[in-house]
């Protein structure tokens, strides 16, 4: 006879979900103690059971009752019964933190307090599932998607434009791939629905720090190049190693930028947005501030700096929930 939490042959289980009570107790069962003892017909399983009880203090009746209590459903939401934790989550949602960022940041800020922990899924359920609704539904507007209903993600559309004389991403220095050395950037444009206005986006691969380009007069090559060069020139030399862009026509004057600010510029393959993964992710986050189909020229340079500062103040999972502004500050102090 081998028993490991399963029904025993020729034994009748009591009604309900558990079937562990029998007298005498043949084995230790993983219920309250977390201990499982296994015994064979040719083994002294009674002695095994005696040793189990002596070591763990296991009692079948109390364990059975405790297991039923733990198995009871539905359980109240942690955010419903813990007002302190709920307040922290609501505060950070209003700051546009994602549920995953909130969960990770709690572990970082309260490493020794298990009661101040919540999983991302619990936050999502509290927002979207009515029966678990510890959080106000209007807080969904602060999420990345801004949706009031959960939907599967969709792939971002891709452009296929080529730049004459470009350096392909295959020539990118190996140091940029593992993010070990800072100063390697990814760039792109956020374009409105009518293709009439745009905002330039720059993301540093190691720290995730973000900068935005103000393009009030359009995004033709003669308008993008000077704005891009001006923004990169604000960086210290240690953070100006390379820039990777897609093959959009706005970068036709890339050689001018490369020479003016002394930076290497590379271009992704067509239909390969994952080659600028950090930038693609950031562009998705920026749509919280600049929704598709809106006129992007209404935003001033000061507006863009404010949005970048707020984005750089969000904790990131890749940084062990450190903020990009914190990671960049540490680099500059080294």
List the helices and strands and how they pair.
Blueprint: H1 45-56, H2 60-71, H3 78-81, H4 83-94, H5 99-109, H6 120-128, E1 184-191, E2 198-204, E3 210-215, H7 221-232, E4 242-245, H8 254-261, E5 264-267, H9 277-286, H10 301-311, H11 324-333
Parallel strand pairs: 1-4, 4-5
Antiparallel strand pairs: 1-2, 2-3
Helix pairs in contact: 5-6, 7-8
What's the quick description here?
By secondary structure, the chain is an alpha/beta fold. It has helices at 45-56, 60-71, 78-81, 83-94, 99-109, 120-128, 221-232, 254-261, 277-286, 301-311, 324-333, and strands spanning 184-191, 198-204, 210-215, 242-245, 264-267.
Descriptive report:
By secondary structure, this protein is α/β, with parallel strands linked by helices. It folds into three domains: 72 residues, no CATH class; 65 residues, no CATH class; 165 residues, Ribonuclease H-like superfamily/Ribonuclease H (Nucleotidyltransferase, domain 5, 2-Layer Sandwich). 33% of the residues lie in helices and 9% in strands. It is built from eleven helices and five strands, in the order H-H-H-H-H-H-E-E-E-H-E-H-E-H-H-H. A five-stranded mixed beta sheet has the order 3-2-1-4-5. The longest helix is centred in the N-terminal third of the chain and has 12 residues. It is elongated, with a radius of gyration of 28 Å. The N and C termini lie far apart (65 Å). The N terminus is likely disordered.
């Amino acid at each position: 006879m081998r028993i490991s939490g399963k029904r025993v042959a020729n034994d009748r289980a009591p009604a309900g979900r558990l079937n562990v009570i029998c007298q005498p107790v043949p084995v230790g069962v993983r219920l309250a103690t977390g201990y499982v003892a296994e015994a064979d017909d040719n083994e002294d399983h009674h002695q095994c059971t005696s040793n189990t009880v002596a070591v763990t203090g296991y009692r079948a009746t109390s364990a059975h009752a405790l297991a039923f209590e733990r198995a009871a459903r539905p359980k109240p939401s942690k955010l419903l019964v813990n007002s302190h934790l709920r307040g922290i989550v609501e505060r950070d949602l209003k700051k546009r933190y994602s549920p995953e960022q909130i969960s990770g940041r709690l572990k970082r800020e309260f490493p020794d307090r298990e009661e101040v922990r919540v999983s991302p899924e619990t936050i999502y359920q509290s927002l979207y599932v009515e029966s678990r609704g510890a959080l106000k539904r209007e807080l969904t507007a602060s999420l990345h998607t801004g949706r009031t209903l959960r939907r599967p993600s969709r792939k971002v559309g891709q452009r296929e434009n080529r730049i004459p004389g470009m350096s392909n991403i295959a020539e990118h220095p190996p140091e940029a791939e593992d993010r070990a050395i800072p100063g390697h950037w990814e760039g792109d444009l956020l374009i409105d629905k009518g293709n009439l206005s745009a905002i330039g986006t720059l993301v540093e691969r190691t720290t995730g720090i973000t900068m935005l380009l103000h393009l009030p007069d359009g995004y033709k090559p003669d308008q993008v190049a000077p704005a891009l060069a001006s923004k990169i020139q604000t960086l210290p030399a240690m953070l100006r190693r390379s820039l990777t862009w897609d093959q959009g026509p706005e970068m036709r004057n890339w050689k001018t930028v490369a020479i003016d600010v002394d930076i290497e510029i590379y271009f992704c393959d067509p239909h390969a947005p994952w080659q600028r993964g950090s930038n693609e992710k950031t562009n998705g986050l920026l749509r919280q501030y600049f929704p598709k189909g809106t006129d992007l020229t209404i935003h001033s340079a000061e507006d863009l700096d404010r949005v970048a500062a707020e984005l750089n103040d969000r904790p990131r999972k890749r940084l062990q929930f450190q903020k990009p502004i914190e990671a960049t500050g540490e680099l500059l102090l080294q």
